[in-house]
Amino acid sequence: MYSKADTHIHTTASDGMMSPEDTVAYIAGRTDLRVIAITDHDTAEGAFVARSYAQRNALPLDVIVGQEVSTNEGDVVGLFLSATLPVYDTAAEAIKAIHAQGGLAVAVHPFSRWATFNNMKGVGSKIFELPFDGVEVRNGFPTNLLSNLLSVWLNRMIGQRLPEFGGSDSHAPYTAGQAWTEFPGRNAADFRQAIECGRVRAGGPLWTTPNLIRVARLLVRRRGLHQPEPAFSD
């Protein structure tokens, strides 16, 4: 049995639009995801809150503690973390720190060229040489269509043939799961085993137009009211 994971989700703990609790509640009730990773920029605190909320409410969703770690060479997502990590100068330092916590390091949107537009910066050719545990080849942000294709080709033809991930890069849960990672099993432990055995595969579209509209409406309302709308509002 294959399940879906989304390994790249943001909340209000960094630059997301909904709280960790609302994000998890929406995803558990409205998507077919079985595993998610909360990966806020430079903090794991939102992920701890999200995991606690899911466990406390017995939701059918495993939450991995993650973080999108900033480095001067590009962003690195740490999965299965035990504490927040600082900003690092190099991607190698970030990977070493993630591994020291027993976590896994993923190169996200490695060839994205939209750093000045949306704070999205990839590590580029570092995926050829550094000890990453996986590479995100399907990032859900709409501008990454070509860079996604480039990531797949370079990873398979020139790089290390790293396990390939899909992540929505969702900043509002409406777009969660619109890029995912398929794996055999149902929970976070199965997912980690699949990564380590190279049995994951990226799937899904980019953010769909209806949900882009919902995100835009939420962004407008948030700026106007200075607070997010409830997670289950239509």
Which key phrases capture this entry?
234 residues, alpha/beta, TIM Barrel, nine-stranded mixed β-sheet, 9 strands
Question: What order do the helices and strands come in, and which of them pair?
Answer:
Layout: E1 2-9, H1 20-30, E2 35-38, H2 45-56, E3 62-69, E4 76-79, H3 91-100, E5 104-107, H4 115-118, E6 134-139, H5 145-157, E7 164-167, E8 180-184, H6 188-196, E9 201-203, H7 209-225
Helix pairs in contact: 1-2
Describe this structure in words.
Mean pLDDT is 92; it is low at 227-234. A nine-stranded mixed sheet has the order 7-6-5-4-3-2-1-8-9. The chain starts with a strand and ends in a 9-residue tail after the last helix. It is built from seven helices and nine strands, in the order βαβαββαβαβαββαβα. It has helices at residues 20-30, 45-56, 91-100, 115-118, 145-157, 188-196, 209-225; strands at residues 2-9, 35-38, 62-69, 76-79, 104-107, 134-139, 164-167, 180-184, 201-203. Helix 1 (20-30) packs across helix 2. It is globular and about 45 Å long. With 234 residues, the protein is of the alpha/beta class. It has a single domain, classed as Alpha-Beta Barrel (TIM Barrel), CATH 3.20.20.140. Helix content is 32%, strand content 20%.
Describe this structure in a few short sentences.
By secondary structure, this protein is an alpha/beta fold.
